[in-house]
Write a structure and sequence with these properties.
tRNA binding (chains A, B), homodimer, binds S-adenosylmethionine, 7-stranded parallel sheet, tRNA (guanine(18)-2'-O)-methyltransferase activity (chains A, B), methyltransferase (chains A, B), Alpha/beta knot, tRNA (guanosine(18)-2'-O)-methyltransferase (chains A, B), alpha/beta, tRNA-binding (chains A, B)
């Protein structure tokens, strides 16, 4: 590893947000998973939570998750378990979910410790996860089709979170614990 | 067609933005094309311009474009031709392109007549299109990977355009010419 490369890893680590997370609740198409993970890296998500689908897609999801490198992934049995884990770490859980109680995504304060929950491609956020989330957020739509692609919806909301966190200076000083810094640097430097 | 369905089509048409367009300059993966078109529908793009790749992907792109319904598509030989066509209709051409001259995407006024140009999955915006565009815009990135998925980048910028246009009331009154309204309604009602 060149000194420059090591500097680059450290600089990126110094921008990682331990209190901004994503829960993929049953998302199963590999290209969507890849796009979500790539966006997580770009906005500084340290850790991604995946509730694995309970069907044939399970192994595909595992493979798709295994091939990525810059975001730590934790697997969960289902959405509820992932939500409980997020809340235990002090995060508010926002479900990206068009419901009666949903608020427009730009009205939320993403500088608060936050996990964004995404639903599956076909059926969206299921009733159990919707009930377990703290709030629902939606992205207004002006057209005929009634939802965005899931990786697109994730990106629109995470881009707003990123903008708010930039404005608040949350990328300007390292926010990781010593253990988080050390463990993640080790993983990145020794793949 | 039920009266309710017809009302829905008219209401959506009344939100269409004839002066907000997208140029896909060589984008060729079907799932990316599908996601871009879906996002275009959701933010009210009336017309999408596709510069077809000059290789084996050409037919795949044609097929992917043919299967969508709510956004009018114009095909072009290359990016330059698409840019010329956009400019002829009075649109500023913004290339989503990370260059020395690029400005952060949130600093741009998207209530102006605008076409957003997107580059290919592998090599991005080529030199000719970059030179022909009026401005370059970029989305800040905090991670290790050096670009977003193209449909994700499109969505992040178009969501900002949508937000600005909502705030400016551009979705509150019909903005189509009589001919645009008539022709598009005919196409939508008689697929
Ligand atoms: C393709 S959508 C699911 C569509 C499903 N038919 C439904 O009714 O929920 C996949 C996921 O993307 C997210 N999503 C898509 N469009 C959204 C929007 N306009 N607002 C908030 N989240 C959205 C949600 O997390 C959703 O579960
Ligand atoms: C996967 S990227 C192309 C990456 C290519 N290696 C390059 O260097 O340009 C595909 C397209 O998405 C858009 N894009 C991706 N990330 C972007 C960003 N951070 N800012 C602006 N546009 C971006 C651009 O239009 C780009 O041409």
């Amino acid at each position: 590893m060149t000194p420059e490369r090591l500097r680059r890893l450290r600089a990126t680590l110094a921008r990682r947000q331990p209190d901004l997370s994503v829960i993929m609740d049953g998302v199963h198409k590999p290209h969507n998973i890849a796009a979500v993970v790539r966006t997580c890296d770009a906005v500084g998500v340290l850790e991604l939570h995946a509730a694995l689908p309970n069907n044939r897609a399970r192994d595909t999801v595992r493979t798709a998750l295994g091939s990525q490198r810059w975001v730590n992934v934790r697997e969960h049995h289902d959405g509820e378990e992932a939500i409980r884990a997020a809340r235990k770490r002090g995060l508010q859980v926002l479900a990206a979910h068009w419901s009666d109680q949903a608020v427009p995504y730009r009205e939320v304060d993403y500088t608060q410790p936050t996990a964004l929950l995404l639903g599956t491609e076909r059926t969206g956020v299921d009733a159990t996860s919707a009930a377990a989330a703290d709030r629902h957020v939606f992205i207004p739509m002006m057209g005929m089709v009634s939802s965005f692609n899931v990786s697109v919806a994730a990106a629109i909301i995470l881009a707003e979170a990123c903008e708010q966190r930039r404005a608040a200076g949350l990328y300007d000083r390292s926010r990781l614990s010593e253990a988080q810094h050390r463990d993640t640097l080790f993983k990145w430097a020794h793949p």
